[in-house]
Amino acid sequence: MLKTEELQINIGPQHPSTHGVFRMVATIDGETVVHLEPVFGYLHRNHEQLGEVFTYLQIVPFTDRLDYFNSMINEHGFCMAVEKLAGIEVPERAEYIRVIMDELSRILNHATALGFLLNDMGAWQTPLLYGMRQREMIMDIFESLGGSRMMCNYFRFGGLVRDLTPAVLEQINLLMEQLPSFFEEFERLLSGNEILLTRARGVGILPKELAVSYSVTGPVLRASGIAYDVRKAEPYSIYDRFTFDIPIGTVGDVYDRYLVRIEEMRQSYRILQQAIKDLPNAEGSYINQAMKAASKQQSLKPAVGEAYARVESPKGELGYYLVSNGGSSAYRYKIRAPSFINLSGLNDMCRGHKVADVVVILGSIDIVMGEVDR
Q1: How far apart are CA 104 and CA 165, in angstroms?
Q2: 146 vs 10, 12, 152, 237, 291, CA distance in Å?
Q3: Residue 302 near residue 85 (C-beta atoms within 8 A)
């Protein structure tokens, strides 16, 4: 009998499968993972410490660099926390535009994340190309509003930088015409694919009890069978006005995470239909007029107090905690980043699977290192 022993290997921090500067220390027995430890911190940028030095307004563009796929939603959560702290009202039209930006971001994120997940399974680039096609259209809309495709810097305290013009609304309507066929095509090509089924079914299972104990949120939690979504659990902005469902999985494996994201894109489409239809036509109400001047935004000094605001980002619950001492910058600034917390269950998801499965399991969590490390 040949004597064997466990081996410890490093995957990353510079590795194409780690979705950023991220390291996994894996203990393996042959090809089977016995233990896996995630190691992060390589991309630490002192984001929270900078937030305690810069003014509140100066932090808005910095939030774009957290989950850089979803800068609009990052800004939404931060502005909500500041508005809560300073008691700033947001006009109704601005709230509708914010929801439209959030749900476009969710479709953009999931279309791309699923493309990358299929890349991790070996379907080299073709599904990703389909996702990128829709992402480009959404980024064109963001560029028209924010002046930048990824680092949008579009939200302000009390509203937005500028209004949604008829030309941009036309861009959104054109996208809306194409989305149903995209969802149908994406699912028809992939959901029954033999390779996807083999690589995803029964792989990386996260039981619901374990998901809750790790405070996992977003599609990873919902795939484990927990119907928790901040938009329903604690409706913010105007989400309580819209009809939509929370898709959940039954097994909690990679395949359920894939299916949940597909259905979440359809639910975002439902919300977009309602938001576009009901968008108030009130000129100038894209921002609270008392906060329209740049000097008002820049010189904001909330009263002494604390505030926490959370949004349902495409990766899970994204929260911002702020403490004010009455100055022009936060006394304490803390972020609840879903990408960081969702990695907590990685060892349990990978244990007992092959090394090649680790890449797929990590891809199914959908992390962005800018948000993990901050």
Answers
A1: 16
A2: 40, 35, 5, 20, 18
A3: yes
